[in-house]
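INFO batch 0412 | record 1 of 1 | parsing
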Amino acid sequence: MQANQVKPTNIFTMDKARIVRFYDLTRDVRFFQVRPYTLDMAYMMDYRPGQFMMVSIPGVGEAPFSISSTPSRPGLFEFGIRKMGVLTEKLFELKESSFIWIRGPYGNGFPIEKMKGHNLIIVMGGLGAVPLRSLLLFALDNREDFGDIYLLYGARTPDDMLFRDEYLSMKQRDDVKVLLTVDSDPTGVWSEDIGVVTNLFSRIKGIDPEMTYVAVCGPPVMYKYVIKELIKMEIPKHQILMSLERRMKCGVGKCGHCAIGYIYTCIDGPVFTYWDVIHMKELI
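INFO prediction complete | emitting tokens
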């Protein structure tokens, strides 16, 4: 099944799913692997990097979460979820093999077909590592479809870096350049860069801007400075892609919670180009 196909379904249909594995990424972010209840359904539910699912627990609530897994490895959905409310607190209480409900996938995702044949720069900050991990793994699983691949990831401390061991292991690969940095290192054992993520841009060499797509996701304060660096590199504005999950609630544009004028983040996004953001600054 191709990555731009999705399961035909009523947009409000919920599917039963089992938590098959989880572990803590940081003190307040947990990694969940979830499989739809039946194996046939598990392999039917396709998606694009950058899309999200609605996750619910009956009697507790429902919320949108970015998909962190890649459609090139079907059968499981992976999520990195921060504990920050009633629903997530309940999710953190569940044990492996517990059931939850999912619906989706929703949102536009990244324009994979347009990105093929181009270089790829992925810039993560904080929890932005969750949706961009899907794009990174997809690109690495389909390595022949992309040019140079750079991963730039900044976190507050080594202990705050999501998927830290996974990304450190990627540094051994020859087909991706992994650059990791932290604002500070209380542990004293961090062997990578220390400083803001924009300091890493000077390490990107020999990139043709016209043949490069950039995907960015992180805290709002990060975008201003990252975009400034990308403009210096002369990356075309329509090739700067930003994942912005602004106030999404229902996932299908019915509640109006994420509306900005005529734009709905859950339908028209969560992936937007820099052109979109220029004309709709409220997106950030």
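INFO post-check: Residues 1-8 have pLDDT under 50 and may be disordered.
INFO record closed
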